[in-house]
Amino acid sequence: MHSEAALKLERFLPYRLSLLSNRISASISRAYAERFTLSITEWRVMAVLARFPGLSSNEVAERTAIDKVAISRAVSNLLRHGRLQRETHGSDRRKSVLTLSAAGHAICDEVVPRAEAYEQALLAGLDDAERTALNRIIEKLMRQQAIAAEHL
Fold this sequence. Notes:
Oligomer: single chain
Low-confidence stretches: none
Number of domains: 1
CATH architecture: Orthogonal Bundle
Distance between the termini: 24 Å
Structural class: mainly alpha
Number of strands: 2
Order of helices and strands: HHHHEEHH
Radius of gyration: 19 Å
Largest sheet: 2 strands, antiparallel
Strand content: 5-15%
Shape: globular
C-alpha cells in the first residue's frame, strides 16, 4: 500500500532553497572551473581564508558547512597548486593553520569583483526593501534551522 501523503516539492521550502542554491553554485562553479581551474569547494575554502586567515581545515569545514572530507580534498588540491600555505600553529605544534599564498591572493583579487557582480546581477530584480527583507529572512531561517531540526 502506498502513502497518499506525497510531498509537494514545488512548494516545500527546503527543496526550493536547495534547487536555487544548486543552480547558483553550478553557474559559479562552471565559471571558476573554466577561468581559474577551481572547484566550488576550493573557492569556498579560499574565500573563507581570505576573510579569516589562519584557520585549521576543521575550522574551515565548520564555517562552510561542508564535510571535512571534501574540505580536506580541496585543501590538498589548493596546497598542491600553490594557492594555500600550511603552517604549524605557534603555540600548538600539532595544529596546522592555513593561509592564502600570493597566488591564492591573486586569484581572489580576480574572483571577488566577479562574485560581487554576479550577486548584484542576481539581486537586480529586487528593490532595496526586498533585498533588506531577504537578508532578514535568511538570517532568521539560519537561526531557526537548528530548532526545526529537532522535528526530523
